[in-house]
Amino acid sequence: MLIILKHGSGPQEIESVVAEVRRVGYRPHVSEGKHTTLIGAIGKGPTPELLDHFRALSAVQDVIPISKPYKLASLEVSPKPTVLRWNSGATGGGEVLIAAGPCGVESLEQTLTAARYVKKHGAQMLRGGAFKPRTSPYSFQGMGQEGLEILAEARRQTGLPIVTEVVSPEQVDLVATYADVLQIGARNAQNFALLQAAGRSGRAVMLKRGMSMTLEEFLMSAEYVLAQGNMQLILVERGIRTFEKSTRFTLDVSAVPVLKSWTHLPVWIDPSHAAGKRDWVTSLALAGLAAGADGLIVETHPEPEKAQSDAAQQLTESQFADMMRKVRALLPALGRRLTQELEPA
């Protein structure tokens, strides 16, 4: 349920309602606006008697049952967009952030080269996989902890925060030691133990949509992270499986405006996995931003033809630079911007 406090309610009134929410066994989530304070009470569906109980409190203006099955992700609980910030940039609420780098960490030289040029061309976060969940058990699985150490060195040298994938609950503590953002990939989007462990990590989480998930199912997976008290969550549309075979997946561009009408969380696009071919990545990236995406996560490699994973979809440096020029040209027309851009290396 959503508890709307009376205009002018102060800290003492807010705390008294929060205490009552906890007393009856619900979890409070406070959202303070300029004129109104909202308190989401998260738990089982309230009875009519409980709704009336809270309406009778002196500081309460009204109480509204939350109709959505996802609670903490809904705009009913947090009507203002969530904005996540790092020293290099921000995402949400009109701020756009670009994460870029190789699909997999393969060496220190490869990762540092990519980190330096994505920073030079305006990316504000470095992506790179140290653990790689692959369809085939015989494919490159990543460098593990050595890959995490390489990413940490790239962050030290460039100042870029890093996002990297975690593939099991047992890895969360290790990956969180190195990463600024924990990525949960499409294949693990309904791995509920992993979602909960990532939510408890204290790190921001990037959740990719499963290739066969509905948007409601996607938000229910997000709820597992949020329910751990971690509101630092980015949703990523990365393409869904359809009958079309010309692209690796079908990018559901419509998911962006739909999700943004349902949730306060930042919504990103992964054009690389959707396209499966580097020549189409920029077009999909621009389409996602035009639809309202708050960020992009893009694969780029210094020598894509030598990449040990997803070689066909990784941009060259020149292609990445071209994409960033087009992103910069597009965003002002959309009333959005890349923030706190780093100086060229």
Automatic annotation (TrEMBL):
Annotated SUPFAM superfamilies: Aldolase (SSF51569)
Q: Which residues form the DAHP synthase ferredoxin-like domain?
A: 1-68
A Pfam family name for this chain?
A: DAHP_snth_FXD
- Which UniProt keywords are given for this protein, alphabetically ordered? Transferase
Q: Which residues form the DAHP synthetase I/KDSA domain?
A: 90-324
Q: What is its EC number?
A: 2.5.1.54
Coiled-coil spans are none
Top EC class, one word:
transferase
> One MF term from GO for this chain?
3-deoxy-7-phosphoheptulonate synthase activity
NCBIfam families referenced in this protein's UniProt entry, alphabetically: DAHP_synth_Bsub (TIGR01361), PRK08673.1 (NF006421), PRK12595.1 (NF009239)
Recorded protein name is: Phospho-2-dehydro-3-deoxyheptonate aldolase
Record organism: Meiothermus hypogaeus
